[in-house]
From TrEMBL:
<dbReference type="InterPro" id="IPR006148">
    <property type="entry name" value="Glc/Gal-6P_isomerase"/>
</dbReference>
<dbReference type="InterPro" id="IPR018321">
    <property type="entry name" value="Glucosamine6P_isomerase_CS"/>
</dbReference>
<feature type="domain" description="Glucosamine/galactosamine-6-phosphate isomerase">
    <location>
        <begin position="8"/>
        <end position="228"/>
    </location>
</feature>
<protein>
    <submittedName>
        <fullName>Glucosamine-6-phosphate deaminase</fullName>
    </submittedName>
</protein>
<dbReference type="InterPro" id="IPR004547">
    <property type="entry name" value="Glucosamine6P_isomerase"/>
</dbReference>
<dbReference type="InterPro" id="IPR037171">
    <property type="entry name" value="NagB/RpiA_transferase-like"/>
</dbReference>
<keyword id="KW-0119">Carbohydrate metabolism</keyword>
<dbReference type="Pfam" id="PF01182">
    <property type="entry name" value="Glucosamine_iso"/>
</dbReference>
<keyword id="KW-0378">Hydrolase</keyword>
Length: 244
């Protein structure tokens, strides 16, 4: 389902509806939300916070699983996705910090980080994500699955492309400070979620969105993997939808 909103604010409302409906269809146990970082989902988190304030939603018993984390940053580092999500998600919609799960990209050796990635993937599979929120990179990545990622991949270390590092440099003190690698859920891991909600706003995403939704299913555009999923809601503003 592709929903085209008039603007980013309306896109946040559509996305919130899609997320809450997806969570409501859970039959037993506490809700499990798959969460993304980046600028795009901030409107959604703020919309969900308003619903919490109005008593229409409650995330106090929910758990959240992040898509990805930078390699080499401890979970306490200001630019780590763990800290970002504590500030932008937990403190906004009320997911408890102890219920926020993030990949651990920090360790003494590559082997240790690889083992941590596999353990995270197993934990994620065990939890069963109800709704996975996704943004999209300008090169078509989801999570940090850069072009060329295997469509069946699991949580693992991925090298970041120059474009992704440049896109994310605004959060760091310059390009040199941006880590070169990440630990990211694989495309196969992401597909396990019961529902995917992919959000894209702004003209800079228009090419990636058109390729993902109307192009061939291909590792060249990792987001095209959503074509395989039976329950996907894509929420766009008019600018992001302009090449469809
Ligand atoms: C990062 C994240 C992605 C996110 C992308 C787009 O690379 N790993 O999960 O979708 O940025 O970010 P933004 O929403 O800021 O454009």
């Amino acid at each position: 389902e592709v929903l085209i909103a008039a603007n980013a604010e309306e896109a946040a409302t559509f996305a919130a509806e899609a997320v809450l409906h997806g969570l409501a269809s859970r039959k037993t146990g506490n809700p499990v939300l798959g969460v993304a970082t980046g600028s795009t989902p901030l409107g959604l988190y703020s919309e969900l916070a308003q619903r919490v304030a109005r008593g229409e939603a409650d995330f106090s018993s929910a758990s959240a699983y992040a898509l990805d984390e930078y390699v080499g940053l401890e979970g306490t580092h200001e630019q780590s996705y763990r800290q970002t999500l504590i500030t932008e998600l937990c403190q906004v919609i009320g997911v408890k910090e102890e219920n926020l799960h993030t990949p651990n990209g920090f360790g003494d050796s590559e082997e240790q980080i690889i083992a941590q990635a596999a353990a995270y993937d197993a934990q994620l599979t065990e939890a069963g994500v109800d709704v996975q929120i996704l943004g999209i990179g300008t090169n078509g990545h989801i999570g940090f699955n850069e072009p060329g990622s295997s469509l069946g991949s699991r949580t693992r270390i991925k090298r970041l492309t120059g474009q992704t590092r440049a896109d994310n440099a605004r959060f760091f003190d310059g390009l040199d400070a941006v880590p070169t690698h990440s630990v990211t859920q694989g495309l196969g891991s992401i597909l396990q979620a019961r529902r995917l909600v992919l959000i894209a706003t702004g003209s800079q995403k228009a090419d990636a969105v058109a390729t993902a939704l109307e192009g061939a299913l291909s590792a060249a555009c990792p987001a095209s993997v959503v074509q395989l999923h039976p329950d996907v809601v894509v929420v766009l503003d008019e600018a992001a939808a302009s090449n469809l």
